[in-house]
Design a protein that fits this description.
The chain is of the alpha/beta class and 396 residues long. The protein has two domains: 5-179, Flavin prenyltransferase-like (Rossmann fold); 188-276 and 302-393, CoaB-like (Rossmann fold, 3-Layer(aba) Sandwich). It is built from 13 helices and 21 strands.
Length: 396
């Protein structure tokens, strides 16, 4: 979203106050936000508020004299990388679906070639009215409009039903998808993420430091780029990315079974999880108690190689990406995994480096494939995720 031009249309409705939060959030992400408000919107939120939140003048009147001469609705229509209307009233949907362009907002949206994202908000009965639903179908079919469906909640009229404007996070995610080339559309991508837990007794377990952030960032980026994404996640404290199906697992054996079941249907498998290499041979049925200073002996057995199993089953055209989180001999260990796992490439990182590894927002990785290596600088994990997917495209 950084450096992109977002035209934000605001229509009249109690949810108009949310437009201010949206404008502020998108500017914080680096976007340039230009607001168009209908005259009815001014009954719910002031022009000054939207100008303060967006950092740009707000347009309302078709015949306002601009600071510099230009046909303003055409200028905004051309400037937009994405055109977002939030909230969108039933009146607005009906006018645009019927080709009515009688104010600045409807005129500009009729003139734009940018992707259009619309977040409706209205009374439940108005939203479910067959005319409103017909108008939405018309806008999808004729203009390719992406609708961010309203949620069920308590409305301003004190009824509870569908019509409450979607969460800002979901609206911004839709804008980001509209800005992103859909180069993974039609592809099925499976991503594993997070640690596993190996039970010692009903209270304790063995695990590792993985937070799942890298895998979740990859799943989110793949969905934004149009893929059908399945996220197989160990125990983490992260929100599920939008447009992603999440499958929870606990142990490495659970992860192994999930991939046995799911991997055959995928085009791309990215193994960012950190499964435990060992598990207790026998988990105690009751909580293990101290024994007056006596040492506790426990026998560990090796878990099966999840990535190796997937690599052995890999079919022609299927892409497998494995991770190598190392503390020494990074490239040597990664090269060994490349062959052993039958991976197309390895994402290797030295978790002892500052800013890399577990439970941080950044990473430093090297891609290793059979043609050589590609070293990346310190990047946010969200940026690393897109670089990984860019590299995946070379193998598809």
């Amino acid at each position: 979203m950084n450096g992109k031009n977002i035209v934000l249309g605001v229509t009249g409705g109690i949810a108009a106050f949310r437009a201010a939060e949206l404008a502020r959030s998108m500017t914080k992400l680096g976007a340039r936000v230009y607001c168009i408000m209908t005259k009815n919107a001014l009954n719910f939120i002031t022009r000054q508020t939207m100008e303060t939140m967006s950092g740009n003048p707000v347009v309302v009147d078709m015949f306002e004299r601009p600071d510099k001469w230009e046909v303003e609705h055409i200028a905004l229509a051309k400037r937009a990388d994405v055109f977002l209307v939030a909230p969108a009233s039933a009146n607005f949907l009906g006018k645009v679906a019927s080709g009515v362009a009688d104010d600045m907002l409807t005129t500009t949206i009729m003139a734009t070639r940018a992707p259009i994202v619309v977040a409706p908000a209205m009374n439940t009965n108005m939203y479910e009215n067959p005319i409103t639903q017909r108008n939405m179908r018309t806008l999808r079919e004729m203009l390719g409009v992406t609708f961010v469906e309203p949620s069920v909640g308590q409305l301003a009229c004190n009824t509870v039903g569908k019509g409450h404007i979607a969460d800002n996070e979901d609206i911004i995610a839709a804008v980001r998808r509209a800005l992103t080339p859909q180069d993974l559309a039609g592809r099925r991508v499976l991503v594993t993420a997070g640690p596993t837990r190996e039970a010692l007794d009903p209270v304790r377990y063995l695990t590792n430091r993985s937070s799942g952030r890298m895998g979740y960032a990859i799943a989110e980026a793949a969905a934004r780029r149009g893929a059908e994404v399945t996220l197989v996640s160990g125990p983490v404290s992260l929100e599920k990315p939008a447009k992603v199906e999440r499958v929870f697992v606990e142990s490495t054996m659970d992860l192994y079974a999930a991939l046995e079941r799911l991997c055959g249907a995928q085009d791309v498998i990215i193994q960012a999880a950190a499964p435990a290499d060992y598990r207790p041979e026998h988990a105690a049925e009751q909580k293990i108690k101290k024994t007056d200073g006596e040492p506790l002996a426990m026998r560990l057995v090796e878990n099966p190689d999840v990535a190796g199993m997937v690599g052995a089953r890999k079919r022609p055209g299927q892409v497998l990406v494995a991770f190598a989180a190392e503390t020494q001999n990074l490239l040597g260990n990664a090269a060994g995994k490349l062959e052993k796992k039958n991976a197309d490439f390895i994402v290797a990182n030295d978790v002892t480096r500052p800013g890399a590894g577990f439970d941080v927002e950044t990473n430093i990785v090297t891609f290793l494939d059979r043609e050589g290596k590609t070293e990346l600088p310190l990047l946010k994990k969200s940026e690393v995720a897109d670089r990984i997917l860019d590299h995946v495209l070379k193998f598809l």
